[in-house]
Amino acid sequence: MAFFDIPLPVFMGQLLIGLINGAFYAVLSLGLALIFGLLNIVNFAHGALYMVGAFVAFLLLDIAGIGYWPALLLAPVIVGLFGIVIERLLLRPLAELDHLYGLLLTFGLALLLEGAFRHFYGVSGERYAIPDALQGVFNLGFMFLPVYRAWVIVASLIVCIATWLLIEKTRLGATMRAAVENADLVRAFGVNVPLLVTVTYGFGVALAAFAGVLAAPIYSVNPLMGSNIIIVVFAIVVIGGLGSIKGAIVSGFLLGVCEGLTRVFWPEASNIVIFVVMAIVLIVRPAGLFGKAA
Amino acid sequence: MTESLLSVEGLEAWYDESHILHGMNFTVGKGEIVTLLGRNGAGKTTTMRSIMGLVRKRTGSVRFGAVETIGLSANQIARAGIAFCPEERGIFSSLTVKENLMLPPVVAEGGMSVERVYELFPILKARGASQGTKLSGGEQQMLAIARILRTGAHLLLLDEPTEGLAPVIVEQIGQIIEKLKEEGFTILLVEQNFRFAEAVGDRHHIVEHGQVIDSFERHEVEANREKITGYLGV
Ligand SMILES: Nc1ncnc2c1ncn2[C@@H]1O[C@H](COP(=O)(O)OP(=O)(O)O)[C@@H](O)[C@H]1O
Ligand SMILES: [Mg+2]
């Protein structure tokens, strides 16, 4: 069977790669959107923290013999705590200043983290094995689907949906949404908004680390893995609408698939298609697909 | 005057470099409705925001009961039992009516139950699932007042609750404020609408250039009507 002269397995294969990339895009842009909403800064360190998440998983195994499943929880917790320290020590003092300072600080932080890991691990990358339970492939008839890749999609979906439910359906989520709109008034109701900001940064960063652990067995654990992906994720955040939770999740998956399909029909364009979409969205809907017009 | 619940002494406040409040002095007794009157730009809103801790640069003294709040942050002041209904109402568009209502955390025992709030404001129950800002202006004002009644705060700061509302809504809000007084709330009310203020207020302070320049008890209003309208420029 063929589709536009493209063999179905090739088509489905690229669709799948698109979905997997989309899963990473979604989890990363979700964290960025949360952080942007409450702190009003674009967290340039996000890609580096994704990389650190992968490295923490690698080091947990290498040094302490702690495997994939505990690392999936531990690495985000460790990186999230690191994020909390960053917010308290470095970002908080800048909160009163122009947001440009926060952006520059996170950019510098990204360079520092990347530089440090490059110094110790070079750029060739470290392998991280797929856990035993997720070895093997599903035979779908028209193609083989590696179990681990299916798991990545499912795990990302679960995390995205759970986060969305937290934001949209819980009291804490309502408080966060309100603080995004008018932090002063929420404080005047007795909510410790600075604490909420700190926790949100930690949580957003933990999401990046979670994506990093998911990525470790697919891509090698590499100091540059973050900077490779983060520019695309910034474009996706803009497409979804800065600060929009739903926008981040939906555009993450959508653009991953879009990128995969472009690779089928016009491979040369697949690296830029997301930026072309971003340009079009910015012209047609400057606030993004799900953003509220200012 | 009864025992004072809020006492503001020599309160000064700045926005960046501009000096807005130049020593505000007034007190609010327990269970009283006290109004701050004055022209636009006199510093009434700034006074409320300063009491609430939302103006960072402020000096002087604001005592709430036995607590000096001048050095506290907004969330600590709210936790002490002061609730704020801002001039622009502050209804959150990303929250439903119900979420807006339930947003302020309970800070003390003895707040109104949700059932009682719905009794006073039936519209909020009927429209619970709507987006907060889809309500009419009057309904949004009701919501802005309703949500601070649940918290157990004893002192309510209401900044121009009648601004821009139709006369029948203003009347309803007047009745609600009367009811709140009966239930023991203490209210500091900022108003441009003097007829409304004199109907509900026990005492009135005239604010000009960030200071209280004159004050009138309820029974003194009649004799000083011309003077007051002169102050307010109406
Ligand atoms: N955020 C602000 N930054 C700078 N100046 C302000 C700000 N808010 C109010 N002002 C100024 O402070 C003065 C008092 O304003 P305000 O307290 O809002 O007056 P009122 O509520 O009595 O109308 C005005 O001159 C106003 O221009
Ligand atoms: Mg005002």
TrEMBL record, chain A:
Gene Ontology MF annotations: transmembrane transporter activity
Topology within the bilayer: Multi-pass membrane protein
Pfam families referenced in this protein's UniProt entry, alphabetically: BPD_transp_2
Key words of the record: Amino-acid transport, Cell membrane, Membrane, Transmembrane, Transmembrane helix, Transport
Compartments (UniProt record): Cell membrane
Top-level lineage group: Bacteria
A GO biological process held by the record: amino acid transport
Residues in coiled coil: none
Entry's Gene Ontology cellular component terms: plasma membrane
Residue stretches spanning the membrane: 15-41, 48-66, 72-91, 100-121, 148-167, 195-219, 225-242, 272-291
Family: Belongs to the binding-protein-dependent transport system permease family. LivHM subfamily.
Name of this protein: Branched-chain amino acid ABC transporter permease
Species for this entry: Notoacmeibacter marinus
Automatic annotation (TrEMBL), chain B:
Entry keyword annotation includes Nucleotide-binding: yes
Domain of life of the organism encoding this protein: Bacteria
SMART domains: AAA
Protein name per its UniProtKB record: ABC transporter ATP-binding protein
Pfam families according to UniProt: ABC_tran
Family of the protein in this entry: Belongs to the ABC transporter superfamily.
Entry keyword set: Amino-acid transport, ATP-binding, Nucleotide-binding, Transport
